[in-house]
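FW: tagging you since you asked about this chain on Friday. Here's the raw sequence from the shared folder, copied in full. Didn't touch anything.
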Amino acid sequence: EMRDRYGRNRFGQACLLARQLTEAGVPFVSIHFNEMTICDGWDTHSKNFEALQTELLPYVDQGLSALIDDLTERGRFDETLVACYGEFGRTPKINANAGRDHWGDCSTTFLAGGGIRGGVVYGESDRHAAYPKADAVNPVDVQATIYHCLGISPETMLFDQVRRPSPITLGQPIQAVLA
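HL: got it, structure written out here
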């Protein structure tokens, strides 16, 4: 029943496993979502709409919502940060293969739980979803926000083998989304 709740697909089962691993004391779990039948995960250079409708969005909707509900029911949501994002967005224009290509100028990040204020939508794109229109966020700011939620100061310095300092991030936490 629990496996069905998360979805009988690789993403849903990975979300269930992630919840189980965190309960077992694993402090950080990452899910790589990229083995699909219609497309190469979110790399929808072709068949974008078919992939979104039949696999990608249903799997994410079921698996991610089950994870959040399950964490909430178990009293672990407020101490568990859930982050869902890719390394870039997709082109606002559809290509000749009914797909969308890589687009670094505008993308989406989902954060919930551990240290994130619920119900907040931050940032806005133009009407084509091509460029940020308001409250643009740099990826290093997302990184700094995640570090902040994990209790790691974004001002932390790392040192290489010859003691040269390097900042853990160049970003700043996004205050508007923090609880």
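FW: The first helix runs from residue 2 to 6.
HL: agreed, and The chain has a mean pLDDT of 94.
FW: great, closing this out.
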